Amino acid sequence: MMKETSVKYEKPRSKGKKAVEYEYTLIGGHNEGTLQIKTRRLPPKRINLSSDMLYTQKKDGRVSIEKWTGKKLPPNWLSSMLEIYEIDGKEPQGELNPVYRYIDHQMVDRCSAKTQKGKRCMKAALPGKNYCYVTHKSPK
Length: 140
Fold this sequence. Notes:
mainly beta; 2 domains; 7 strands
């Protein structure tokens, strides 16, 4: 199951235009196939798609790998994987069926901070960090 996680749009289409249905073709990686996107923007140069597998922690402390089928992350998630795809060839100029090739993957860990209610923050940590934002600094 493919879930779009992060897409950076470079150039907006002119205001007032209707959304266009794009069919992205993904080559390589676990998300190989097609992805339907409806937007008023041109396709991005790079897309990041989350894997459908998560590392989760059970109540007894054991860590397991589970299949993720929802849109919202479960409260016990620890880590997941993003697959990075880059547009094949030059930047599309309104092409409705751009082709993307798998170039790499990146592990995404959960923020280590505790919320005011004492629960662990649900957001993803910044790359190479243990926390999601500057406000979640490690204790000194």
